[in-house]
Amino acid sequence: MVNLVILRHGESEANRDNIFTGWSDVPLTDRGVYQAHQAGKKIAQTNLQFTHVHTSMLQRAIKTADIVLGECHQDWLPQTKSWRLNERHYGALRGQNKAAVKQQVGEAQVQEWRRSFKTVPPLLTCLRQDRRYDSFGPHIEPRGESLEMAYDRLMPYWTDCVAPRLLDGHNQLIVAHGSTLRALIKFLDGVSDANISQVEVANGVPICYTFDEHLTVVKKTKIQ
Ligand SMILES: O=C(O)[C@H](O)COP(=O)(O)O
Question: What is the ipTM, given to two decimal places?
Fold first, then answer.
């Protein structure tokens, strides 16, 4: 048996302020830092030993991972930061208050943008890519993504970087975001396109998947 722990970052300033975030690089709040410590303490109690930690390239996930590893006394672990684990890009919604957008376009439209699998949010008309992505290519940062588009760019990371390590019997830790973890849960749990709208991932609550040697999920538990 081998284990994968997935964890959404602690509360960010944008979460606190109810702002569409996506690829914006916002810091954790004090509450988010606390949530990360609590998550780390809970993971430590399981005595799980990881060989690798995977995060997005956004500070809310990276800082959460660092805090968790400190609590687990596994700060030395090799870490990969990948844009493929970044939050789904919210396009032109980025930076807007979710309640204010609801007032403008109605609750049903906002829910569709936030929770449907295929609906693409309003796209940014132009984009200046942040330099952190330049070494991966000129057009890495999208102008907006549906959950499906985020799923499609996440899966190569699973196939190339996570699944092989699990198949070799090494426990892995992924610290990422609400939407990219919903995409991973969709794959691991076999959730339909329609039903993924019902799946929510809370800040700072670790979820442990246990797999057999064929990478079939045999158990899924919240670590609490
Ligand atoms: O990017 C964001 O705004 C949040 O991380 C998640 O947004 P959601 O709650 O709409 O999925």
Answer: 0.94
